[in-house]
């Protein structure tokens, strides 16, 4: 009697069905008021990217969301600040649900909402969508990194802005996916600081693509896109050093011009640009603000990692013992520092508007 050893699913320990994307959307629907807010916010971002609006786009918020309650408190504080500075800044809240990892670690609210390794992705998707809807209801635009190729069907229509990160900017699959997204998308330079892969990604995402995906009913399907015309470059520094300074910004502008793209960049004040020291983010923002005040129009936006409480903390026993409002991933600047940075950026825009 012959025996045939199995050749599939050799490393699968467990599987379970997720709800269909349409089912989650129907359970937590976006009403017309929220949809209108998202449409307006996206158009405002596009106007800044095209140079039709001289304000700065500022994307600020926690490194990643682990605690929806403190994220909503942050949004509640950010909204009146954004409204006060809206003549100079378009403020969008950073609401990141997936955390890319070089090796291992907590992977984000969608993947592990309990912070305990239980991996209840269905619950994570519910919490993520509820948070985005709550922000939309209060009038707070939101931004997130698009990391997974399946989960965007559950929530991406609620985003004002999206990002493709430094670890995935060279991925053909992420470039194809970006071509289908409805929101403007920023592409970060690579972890080593390379601009060319991000510029290539912008061009690729602008083109039509045909690729397999998952439908709102959870079935395999083929998607044909028209391309996303609102891709842009994010300077986040790298292992070869920061790239927020005027000479680096000028080099990026030249590379964009030579590639036939608008000379507009968003500058990430964290990551390689801060040498992974959260306390340096205000210094990076101040340098960029000085460039803006001197008349430069190449920096059209900034990114900040910011939370209610500065610094970071380790996850030790799920949610037990965590300090409310403090990051569990990358360290963030605190609320008071955030206010000072945004006020400084607004003053820089005002200075740029003065006659010369």
Automatic annotation (TrEMBL):
Pfam families: DAHP_synth_1 (PF00793). It catalyses: D-erythrose 4-phosphate + phosphoenolpyruvate + H2O = 7-phospho-2-dehydro-3-deoxy-D-arabino-heptonate + phosphate. Residues 47-342 form the DAHP synthetase I/KDSA domain. It is an enzyme of class 2 (transferase). It comes from the Bacteria. The keyword DNA-binding does not apply. Keywords: Amino-acid biosynthesis, Aromatic amino acid biosynthesis, Transferase. Its EC number is 2.5.1.54. GO terms for molecular function: 3-deoxy-7-phosphoheptulonate synthase activity. InterPro entries: Aldolase_TIM, DAHP1/KDSA, DAHP_synth_1. Pathway: Metabolic intermediate biosynthesis; chorismate biosynthesis; chorismate from D-erythrose 4-phosphate and phosphoenolpyruvate: step 1/7. Gene3D superfamilies: Aldolase class I (3.20.20.70). Belongs to the class-I DAHP synthase family. Stereospecific condensation of phosphoenolpyruvate (PEP) and D-erythrose-4-phosphate (E4P) giving rise to 3-deoxy-D-arabino-heptulosonate-7-phosphate (DAHP). This is Phospho-2-dehydro-3-deoxyheptonate aldolase. The lineage of its organism: Bacteria, Pseudomonadati, Pseudomonadota, Betaproteobacteria, Burkholderiales.
């Amino acid at each position: 009697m012959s025996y045939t050893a199995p050749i599939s699913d050799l490393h699968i320990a467990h599987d379970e069905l997720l709800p269909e994307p349409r089912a989650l959307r129907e359970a937590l629907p976006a009403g017309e008021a929220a949809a209108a807010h998202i449409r307006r916010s996206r158009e405002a971002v596009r106007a800044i990217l095209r140079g039709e609006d001289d304000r700065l786009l500022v994307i600020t918020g926690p490194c990643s969301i682990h605690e929806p309650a403190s994220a909503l408190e942050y949004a509640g504080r950010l909204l009146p600040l954004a409204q006060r500075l809206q003549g100079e800044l378009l403020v969008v809240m950073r609401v990141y649900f997936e955390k890319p990892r070089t090796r291992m670690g907590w992977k984000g609210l969608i993947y592990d909402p309990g912070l305990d390794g239980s991996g209840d992705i269905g619950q994570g998707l519910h919490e993520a969508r509820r948070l985005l809807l709550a922000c939309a209801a209060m009038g707070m635009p939101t931004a997130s990194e698009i990391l997974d190729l399946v989960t965007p069907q559950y929530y991406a229509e609620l985003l004002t802005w999206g990002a493709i990160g430094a670890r995935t900017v060279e991925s053909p699959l992420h470039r194809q996916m970006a071509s289908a997204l409805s929101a403007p998308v920023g592409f970060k330079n690579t972890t080593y600081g390379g601009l060319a892969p991000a510029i290539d990604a912008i061009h690729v995402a602008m083109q039509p693509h045909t690729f397999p995906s998952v439908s709102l009913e959870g079935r395999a399907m083929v998607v044909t896109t028209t391309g996303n015309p609102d891709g842009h470059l994010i300077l986040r520094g790298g292992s070869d050093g920061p790239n927020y300074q005027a000479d680096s910004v000028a080099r990026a502008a030249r590379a964009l011009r030579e590639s036939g793209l608008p000379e507009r960049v968003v500058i990430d004040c964290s990551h390689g640009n801060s040498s992974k020291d959260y306390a340096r983010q205000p210094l990076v923002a101040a340098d960029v603000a000085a460039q803006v005040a001197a008349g430069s129009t190449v920096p059209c936006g900034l990114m900040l990692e910011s939370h209610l409480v500065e610094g970071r903390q380790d996850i030790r026993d799920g949610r037990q013992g965590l300090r409310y409002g403090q990051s569990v991933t990358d360290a963030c600047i605190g609320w008071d520092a955030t206010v000072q940075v945004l006020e400084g950026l607004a003053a820089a825009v005002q200075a740029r508007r003065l006659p010369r």
